[in-house]
Specification:
Helices cover 47% and strands 17% of the residues. By secondary structure, it is of the alpha/beta class.
């Protein structure tokens, strides 16, 4: 005869010494444990699903970044010119007036633009549009003409900062 032999009239028969309420408690504990396992499994599933979705979004965002063409390093002429004259500016006095010499024609829009960009980049220092000062900023599109232009104006190249930016000074060696 098993623990529960028959269910006559809806009443279960239990062996002697067995508390029928203990069976109900055991069954309730098993149900709670089963629900906890199911709840834990669903939480693990949701956490895993969240990680997978996060990885998919990260991969998609990375593909957008990779497929986008690289932005130019200098977005505008002002920033490019400021960087070009950055080291030269450190060699100049913080205030006062310096001259300007360039191989660009000052009567053209581009020549005027380059003078204005140089003035902006070297502010608060004032840049005169002539080479009559003791210290002169050279702005050359063709650096090969710089020594001859400097000499014609009584100047010498004190330092070449590269990319056409030069520090010129009045006088001899």
């Amino acid at each position: 005869m098993s623990e529960i032999d028959s269910q006559a009239d809806g009443v279960a028969e239990f062996p002697p010494g067995r508390d029928p309420a203990a069976g109900d408690r055991a069954e309730a504990e098993l149900t709670v444990q089963s629900e906890e396992r199911t709840e834990g499994a669903s939480q693990s599933y949701l956490a895993g699903l969240g990680v997978v979705l996060l990885l998919i979004v990260a991969a998609w965002a990375s593909s957008l970044e990779i497929s986008r063409p690289e932005a130019p390093k200098e977005r505008d002429a002002i920033t490019a010119n400021e960087r070009r004259f950055e080291e030269l500016k450190k060699s100049l006095p913080p205030h006062g007036v310096v001259g300007y010499l360039s191989d660009l024609d000052p009567s053209t829009a581009y020549g005027i633009q380059q003078l204005y960009l140089t003035e902006y980049s070297l502010a608060p220092l004032q840049v005169a549009s002539s080479s009559d000062q003791a210290i002169v900023v050279g702005n050359f599109s063709d650096v090969s003409v710089a020594p001859a232009m400097a000499a014609r104006n009584g100047l010498r190249i004190a330092r070449d900062f590269g990319n056409g930016a030069m520090l010129l000074v009045r006088g001899g060696e």
